[in-house]
Amino acid sequence: MSQSTKKLTGGFIVPQSKEECDDMIRQLGELNREAERIKADMNDELALVKERFEKQAAPVKSKAKELLKGIETWCAANRDSLTGGKVKFAKFMNGEIAWRVRPPRVVCRSIDAALAALREHGLEKFIRTKEEINKEAILEDPNAVFSVSGITVKSAGEDFQVKPFETELNGEAA
Q1: H helix count then E strand count, the chain
Q2: What 3-state DSSP class applies to 6?
């Protein structure tokens, strides 16, 4: 008398033997591969759709870029009459234009050389030192911090994994 596969109230099937479990692992592998094929088909179709719309949008973007350059050129030449020399914007019937100053930014070609130069000139106030807990060191010696409040070393837990066997073809790209 063979045991049948049982279905739990949670809506999933539980194998009743090692052979049934092995068969379910095989089925899982087949389903995973089918899902990957579906995903690949989807990505192929998305790439074609994206390419089609990008080609369609290219002349529109090019024309918009030309218009923007023309508007900017005219507004720059007529800035004083548009702004009265007082503001950095002007309103038109169909929109508005504005000149905005970008915020300053710091550019360092070589971080190490810049840090050394700041230290050499006594400008340590421009050097940020970040303090943080070295979790890797604590994991190497958890007993040393056992009595420190606010620090607890916990188990990472346990994950269940099923890895159906798969074979790669020679020369297959990963």
Answers
A1: 4, 4
A2: strand
32, two tokens: 């995973």
d(CA 174, CA 169): 10
CA gap 40, 94 in Å, rounded:
45
Mean pLDDT in consecutive groups of 10 residues from the start of the chain, 174 residues = 58 92 95 96 97 97 97 96 93 95 92 95 94 93 90 87 81 60
- HSE-CB for 120 with a 13 A CA cutoff: 6
Q: Where are the domains of the chain?
A: 14-145
Question: Which among 26, 18, 19 has a CA at the least distance from the CA of 166?
Answer: 26
The encoded tokens of residue 60 equal 């529109």
